[in-house]
Amino acid sequence: MSTEPFDPKKDGALTDFTSRMSYGDYLKLDRILNAQEPLSQAHDELLFIIQHQTSELWMKLAIHELSAAARAIASDDLQPAFKMLARVARIMEQLNSAWDVLRTMTPSEYTHFRSSLGQSSGLQSYQYRAIEYLAGNKNVAMLKPHEHRQELYDWLDGIRRKPSLYDEAIAILARRGFTIDETVLERDKAEPYQRNDSVKAAWARVYRDPAQYWELYELAEKLVDFEDYFRRWRFNHVTTVERVIGFKRGTGGTSGVAYLRRMLEVVLFPELWDVRTEL
After folding, report:
1. Are 196 and 97 in contact (CB under 8 A)?
2. Is 223 helix (H, G, I), strand (E, B) or coil?
3. Contact assessment for residue 134 and residue 104, using Cβ atoms and an 8 Å cutoff
4. Rounded CA gap, 221 and 272, in Å?
5. DSSP 8-state assignment for residue 213
């Protein structure tokens, strides 16, 4: 076994990037790694910033994948949609793991810089709002925190007005011959979705005969996977906030833990959960 230090140049690796694009150039690392600007001297503020910035990067990818999955379903191209939805579930797993790191911060450590946050809050995450609208939780009141930036407001409102991922899943049920109420198919897609018996009956048929409806069966399970991980993300958010600040009000003015617990009651794909009781 050689004890000579490894020399990447002798192994054929490029080492001169004077006129070539390097790893850091491609990833714009200077821009990313200089985007953390703590407003206090607290040691743990850097953790807080990086945890939220990396979460926003993962959310950007989730938006990319969910948008593409909805388009694929609308085009009856389900196989690529399955891959995209599986990736979103893994993204949600990464987002869940991020709470594990943040939970290493104690309440006393957070108090050292909490005042530096001002009124900023996760409630104002426009990417999180986009994910909710893409999935179908179309609460128009949640546009309000974004009115100060017209381009973001218009972008989010555009997503809200389009068919959601679940709207597209219901539409493909109808195209595959299932009887879906016209009130569901023709409803204003900007409005929150309401449970419907015809949709539940369609999913029940799919689940009772998966061999006949295998693509739709797999679509249903991919949607359930996504919502399962999304629920875990919300739950981990609640427990992390309670662990760090207890029942204090949130920096953005919400009731904090009480508000987050109400969000746990939101169901994105209701019939896919309701049908399990009947099978």
Report:
1. no
2. helix
3. no
4. 9
5. T
Judge whether 230 and 135 are in contact, CB under 8 Å.
Answer: yes
Residue 256 three-state SS:
coil
Cα–Cα distance for residue pair 263/123, rounded to 1 Å: 11
Segment 3-20, tens digit of pLDDT: 778 777 777 777 778 889
Q: Are 87 and 65 in contact (CB under 8 A)?
A: yes
Q: How far apart (Å, rounded) are the C-alpha atoms in residues 63 and 70?
A: 11
Asked, for residue 178, whether it belongs to a domain, the answer is: yes
pLDDT at residue 127 in the model:
95
| CATH classification of the domain holding 147 | 1.20.58.480
Token readout for 110 is 């957070």
What contacts 125, CB < 8 A, 6 or more positions away? 56, 59
Domain count, the chain: 1
Segment 45-56 shows an average pLDDT of: 95
Q: Which residues contact 251 (CB under 8 A, 6 or more apart)?
A: 114, 117, 118, 119, 120, 121
- Buried (b) or exposed (e) across 182-200, using 16+ Cβ within 10 A? eebeeeeebeebeebebbb
Cβ neighbors of 86 (< 8 A, separation 6 or more) are 222, 225
The verdict on residue 21 lying in a domain is no
Domain coverage including residue 78: 43-109+121-278
Averaged pLDDT, 193-205: 97
Q: What share of the chain is helix, strand, coil (3-state, %, to 5)?
A: 65, 0, 35
The string of pLDDT tens digits covering residues 230-257 is 998 888 888 887 877 676 665 666 656 7
Q: What letter would DSSP give residue 33?
A: H
Q: Residue 184: inside a domain, yes or no?
A: yes
- Does the pTM surpass 0.70? The reply is yes
Question: In this structure, is residue 33 part of a structural domain?
Answer: no
Pick the more confident residue, 257 or 184: 184
